[in-house]
Write a structure and sequence with these properties.
Strand content: 15-25%
Radius of gyration: 28 Å
CATH class of the domain at 2-141: Mainly Beta
CATH architecture of the domain at 2-141: Sandwich
Shape: elongated
Number of helices: 16
Distance between the termini: 60 Å
CATH topology of the domain at 2-141: Immunoglobulin-like
Number of strands: 28
Structural class: alpha/beta
Strand order of the largest sheet: 11-12-13-16-17-18-19-20
CATH superfamily of the domain at 2-141: Immunoglobulins
Mean pLDDT: 93
């Protein structure tokens, strides 16, 4: 909100009552140095509103960065929203205004009234607020983040659960539409903290990923238009409610990743935009400031104080909320100056290129700071281009993320599965191509929220054929994903074959689980998660070439692929996918080990809603060369089905020659 005609009242009132605000500070000279270097990662301990006690008086210590302001006042329900409490400007050139206001207590509503030299005034929410009013209200709330955590065992061991060699299967969730109450209202964090951990245990996912829980004024942005960089949305309750949810997920032995958005922020008047009458947080250059896709502002990554703000926000969620990692949204829009812009709408960098050099530097600083302070956490990039070395260390020239979403795999795979099976043989390379680059990054395979909205249809809805074929295709898609190198992610509803597209204003169609076909998909995902976690061959070398070997990727005529996944100790799982609705009997597949192979999983099992084609639980590999291997087995391939097979016993048996069927 811009207020006019109050400058004189603000200044005179502030001066006459200034004695009520005391000149105390939480900031040290070293804090200021780090802040101005863009290296401060814990500003949330110093700026914002902190319950404090000075000279025997209880109150709140306020601090805000507004270097171009003529004055900054704290207004709130404790002073009738009048500009009578003026903060002190620090004398060190940092642009920080601060002061202690006695008598203000937890739960008080407040904003900063920022007065500019030309007479304009802006009422701004606190960028460092720990709590915010429930939208459409926009005030900040004085709050304490005290909470008695009970996840000590998880926190001690989370490094092993976040490891690249561990199974990571992620359940992506939007809290406000996972379930709704009977009257259609939102659930609370506390209610969700009872149901979600239990559901994760039942479905065997290893991690929960939450669409942004940071405060956002427009609910339809799903949280991606963030205003509360240190404040969880109040729609579902108080901050401690979110802590309780994460705590209980941890107690259930599951991790929690949070979506986090440093790429852009909304233009709402109470937010960061034009904060002190200048383009403080956003770029001043209009060709860099405005994001045409989301109609929002872009952070000025070249400004050290903004970098400290964002790095502190990332650290905050890992520190105060015990998040196990951050999925960083829209990294490509940060990296490229010409992202979604036509020629003439962007400014090249100093070398004439389209790369945002200061943003690249910021991303590297961000990842270095997070892994320095939280070495057992994960930073995950949603990056949709072929930018190299996104998930490689900064010391080797990478961006420093731990993992990256494989958007290419997602698009190619969903395009292939949308084809009528009769035409799939003409698109066989679409399903095999991903292995060529599967180990160039540490990939997560996402079947995410973005693929089930805006007319794209649900995962089940994308599948061709009659209803039986749709379900068989969905089970095949999920089975193929869990066998493919890379960590796994499924958006809520996909795990039981939600028919409708996701819509943020209603809950999932949980009643579908009373139908056998939907319950079968849910049971299939549970068994996929269990098998993926228990078989080292399926997860241990997800990011290494040694964890994958083709058996046959050439059988396009029958739309069949076969490959092996491998563990470090020689474990092996054979995977065979039949992408047509035609059962294939006596299908021969070469292997390196003789003896009996046990059928670990069969997506066509009756328990999953399939037709029951299979191999009666096991098959014998005989000494008959095939696919360049000494042994082979004759399989019955179920229609639109995937088989996982494992040799009985752990001993290695004679290795045959390896022909050009191997890409690696």
């Amino acid at each position: 909100m811009i207020s006019k005609g109050i400058q004189m009242d603000a200044k005179s009132g502030g001066d006459c009552r200034r004695k009520d605000v005391q000149a105390h500070s939480l900031l040290t000279d070293f804090d200021i140095y780090l802040f101005r270097q863009g290296k401060h990662s814990r500003l949330y301990d110093k700026l914002g509103a902190h319950l404090a006690e000075w000279d025997g008086e209880s109150g709140v210590q306020f601090g805000v960065w507004a270097p171009n302001a003529d004055g900054v006042f704290v207004i709130g329900d404790f002073n009738s929203w009048k500009p009578v409490h003026r903060l002190f400007p620090r004398g060190d050139g940092s642009g920080i205004w601060e002061g202690f206001l006695p008598g203000v207590s937890k739960g008080s509503l407040y904003k900063y009234r920022v007065v500019c030299g030309d007479g304009r005034c802006f009422d701004k929410a606190d960028p460092f607020a720990f709590r915010s009013e429930v939208p459409p209200a926009t005030a900040s709330v004085v709050w304490s983040l005290e909470y008695g955590w009970s996840d000590g065992e998880w926190m001690k061991r989370r490094g092993e659960f976040n490891s690249h060699s561990s199974p990571i299967s992620i359940y992506e969730c939007h809290l406000g539409s996972w379930k709704r109450r009977g009257d259609g209202s939102w659930p609370t964090y506390s209610e969700l903290s009872k149901e979600i951990p239990r559901y994760l245990e039942e479905s065997k996912f290893t991690h929960l990923e939450l669409l942004p829980v940071m405060e956002h004024p427009f609910y339809g942005s799903w949280g991606y238009q963030t205003t509360g960089y240190f404040s969880p949305t109040g729609r579902y309750g108080e901050p401690q409610g979110l802590m309780r949810l994460i705590d209980r997920v941890h107690q259930a032995g599951k991790g929690v990743y949070l979506d986090w958005v440093p790429s852009h922020f909304p233009t709402d008047a109470h937010g960061l935009g034009y904060f002190d009458g200048t383009h403080l947080y956003e770029y001043e250059d209009p060709r860099k400031r405005w994001h045409p896709d989301w109609r929002s502002y872009i952070f000025d990554y070249g400004k050290s104080e903004v970098r400290s703000f964002l790095i502190s926000s990332a650290s905050f969620w890992l520190d105060k909320y015990h998040a196990d990692g951050l999925r960083v949204d829209a990294v490509a829009s940060i990296l490229y100056l010409d992202y979604s812009r036509r020629e003439g709408e962007w400014t090249p960098n100093e070398h004439g290129g389209r790369e945002n050099l200061e943003a690249i530097s910021f991303i590297r600083d961000l990842n270095e700071a997070v892994y320095r302070d939280f070495p057992d956490a994960q930073m995950i990039a949603e990056e949709s281009t072929a930018w190299p070395m996104v998930s490689r260390p900064t010391y080797s020239g990478g961006l420093g993320f731990g993992m990256k979403w494989n958007m290419g795999w997602m698009h190619d795979t969903l395009e292939y599965f949308s084809k009528d099976p009769i035409f799939r043989k003409y698109h066989h390379s679409t399903i095999t191509f991903s292995i060529w680059y599967a180990f160039s990054e540490n990939f997560v395979l996402p079947l995410s929220h973005d693929e089930v909205v805006y007319g794209k249809r649900s995962l089940l809805g994308k599948m061709p054929g009659d209803d039986w074929q749709k379900f068989a295709n969905l089970r095949l898609l999920l089975g193929y994903m869990y066998a493919h190198p890379g960590k796994k992610l499924i958006f809520m509803g996909g795990e039981f074959g939600q028919r409708n597209e996701w819509y943020h204003e209603r809950g999932l169609d949980w009643h579908l689980l009373s139908h056998p076909m939907h319950a079968g998909v849910r049971r299939w995902v549970e068994d996929l998660n269990s098998t993926y976690a228990s078989e080292a061959a399926l997860h241990e070398l997800d990011f290494e070439q040694g964890g994958f070997e083709w058996v046959d990727f050439r059988d396009y005529e029958q739309s069949v692929i076969s490959f092996e996944r491998k563990g470090r100790a020689g474990e092996v799982v054979l995977v065979v996918c039949n992408f047509t609705p035609v059962p294939r009997e006596n299908y021969r597949v070469g292997v390196d080990r003789g003896g009996r192979w046990r059928e670990l999983l069969n997506s066509d099992a009756v328990a999953y809603g399939g037709s029951g084609w299979g191999n009666f639980g096991s098959v014998e590999a005989e000494e008959a060369e095939s696919h360049g291997r000494r042994y082979s087995m004759s399989l019955t391939l179920p229609p639109l089905g995937v088989l996982y097979l494992k040799p009985e016993g752990s001993e290695r048996q004679g290795g045959g020659g390896k022909g050009d069927h191997n890409l690696f």
